[in-house]
Design goal:
single chain, alpha/beta, Rossmann fold, 2 domains, 7-stranded mixed beta sheet, 6-stranded mixed beta sheet, about 40% helix, about 20% strand
């Protein structure tokens, strides 16, 4: 028996486009002799549809497209993920299409309601297995979270299943594939059944989905591994209790994360129909890696870099920005900000009289740059991709309406130490970032001789505290107990707490960790709670 794994990239609400992708997969599957095609979770509607699910017209269009797809599968079984409405109740569903009709339907039983998931807000819970036959083999249909619990798999086996089929839209974060292996391996061990994990690939706002579909044979061995962050129609053979198919080589962590970031920005730009992107190129490491990722994702012809030097910008920063643009082959312009900055200061001088210059003037430089970038965006339609990293987002080391301005914050979930790792990895594939950009001390260059470490702890320490406090919810005393400097921990925790108002106004950006500042970080701005430090 040949099964076609349709690891496809669909778009929320684009029913006609999503259905066409599924039709193409059906055609390729039939040409390869497959008798079953499997699409990811909610493939027809895109994932996650969020509050669009409350709209009857959204559900009506989806149902009409599903019935149209059924007519395209007269001689092959096709599993399609979609939302299903019965009156005022909605289900996260998967249908088996065959013979021109909807032959069977399954409702997801385990609804995740943590981190980025809100499925209990939208869906009712199913309670029955769905086992269907293909070439005399009995296949059980499950959806994503179902197989993170033993009961649905045990239920399917009791119903006579010979193969567990899991369709998924599981957002990527670091080390997620290893987690899936562990959990799905447990279901195989418990049931003795082979398991085929079919996954979505692509970006949707903050979330990215890594593909990397896979299959375990009944003895627990990996027999099939799809590529990460690549669309594909893979053919998997199912014989006895054995699954076999192509096995993609493993990727390094740096390459996996880099592909995730490429996927996120590419799909955000493409699916929202921007002609290209605009990056404020400072000559520093953050804007360099953002420019590189954008050029790799979209092609250099769709990336426009702007260097906006001030009186405090080092000559090496201008030189390095020019060199980065040259190496990447992207468009490059320089717009000095001194005339605009001086005009702002002159207008404010009467009100500021008698007060010394401070961070106000530093932030005014950043806001001048943000205004120029947004003006270019308005005039030409380019998406401004901001360049702040997670370390800066955590501590508020960024200017609201300045370097935080933009439509997409590509590396907002990438801590500074990881930025350096990604830059070195990218250079190993072809030099695009001058070595001194990586080696020099990072600086906002908003005052003479400024470095980031004037205001922040060393990034190795800062990033470790951010990971433990923000991603793992460890309390400050526990972090100190691990040997981290107590005063630095207090300082970082304080900065995280008081800068929530900035993060609430930040653009969306790719989530690559188990917890990013976005959908799965929901802290109040106004709060009397103080962590015990």
């Amino acid at each position: 028996m040949k099964i076609a794994v349709a690891q496809i990239n669909t778009t929320v609400g684009d029913f006609a486009g999503n259905a066409e992708r599924i039709r193409v997969a059906i055609g390729e599957a039939q040409a390869a002799g497959a008798t079953l095609v499997v699409t990811p979770e909610l493939a027809l509607s895109g994932y996650p549809p969020e509050d669009l699910l409350f709209r009857n017209d959204f559900c009506d269009q989806c149902e009409a497209e599903l019935l149209g797809l059924a007519s395209c599968a007269p001689g092959i079984a096709v599993v399609v993920g979609h939302p299903h409405r019965e009156g005022r109740v909605r289900y996260n569903a998967a249908s088996v299409l065959r013979g021109g009709r909807v032959e069977a339907i399954y409702f997801k039983q385990e609804l995740p309601n943590y981190n980025v998931f809100d499925e209990k807000r939208y869906f009712a819970t199913g309670n029955r297995p769905c086992v269907f036959e293909v070439e005399g083999r009995r296949v059980a249909l499950t959806i994503c979270e179902d197989l993170w619990f033993p009961q649905p798999a045990a239920q399917a086996k009791a119903a006579g299943a010979e193969l567990l089929l899991s369709i998924n839209a599981s957002p990527y974060h670091r080390n997620k594939l290893a987690e899936r292996y562990q959990v799905m391996g447990s279901r195989v061990k418990e049931t003795g059944l082979p398991l085929l994990y079919v996954h979505w690939v692509g970006g949707q706002d903050e979330l990215v989905f890594d593909g990397a579909s896979f299959g375990f044979s009944g003895d627990g061995r990996l027999g099939y591994q799809g590529e990460s962050f690549r669309e594909a129609i893979d053919i998997v053979d199912f014989e006895g209790t054995r699954l076999s198919g192509p096995v993609a080589p493993p990727l390094t962590e740096e390459e996996t994360i880099y592909r995730a970031l490429e996927t996120g920005v590419r799909d955000y730009v493409e699916k929202n129909r921007f002609p290209g992107v605009l990056v404020g190129l400072s000559g520093g490491i953050d804007s360099a890696i953002v420019a590189a990722i954008c050029a790799d994702a979209l092609g250099p012809e769709r990336v426009h870099a702007v260097m906006m030097p001030s009186d405090y910008t080092a000559s090496m920063s201008v030189e390095d920005a020019r060199e980065i643009a040259r190496l990447l082959g992207i468009r490059y312009d320089e717009i000095p900000i001194r005339p605009v900055f001086d005009a702002f200061r002159a207008q404010l001088a009467p009100v500021f009289a008698g007060r010394p210059e401070d961070t106000t003037e530093e932030n005014l430089q950043a806001r001048t740059r943000g205004t120029l970038l947004m003006a270019l965006s308005n005039k030409f339609g380019w998406l401004v991709v901001s360049t702040g990293n997670k370390s800066e987002m955590a501590t508020g080391y960024a200017t609201l309406y300045g370097d935080m301005a933009g439509g997409y914050a590509l590396i907002k979930d990438v801590v500074k130490t990881l930025v350096y790792r990604l830059a070195r990895w990218r250079n190993s594939r072809g030099r695009v970032i001058p070595e001194r950009v990586i080696d020099r001390a990072p600086s906002a260059e908003l005052r003479p001789g400024q470095t980031d470490q004037d205001s922040l702890p060393p990034y190795e320490l800062l990033d470790a505290v951010v990971e433990r406090y923000m991603e793992r919810d460890m309390d400050p005393e526990a972090i100190m107990g691990l040997g981290y400097d107590a005063e630095a921990v207090r300082r970082v925790v304080h900065l995280i707490r008081v800068n929530e108002y900035k993060r609430r106004q930040a653009p969306p950006g790719v989530r690559i960790t188990p917890r990013g500042f976005g959908k799965d970080w929901r802290y109040p701005i106004t709060s009397g709670f103080r962590p015990k430090v």
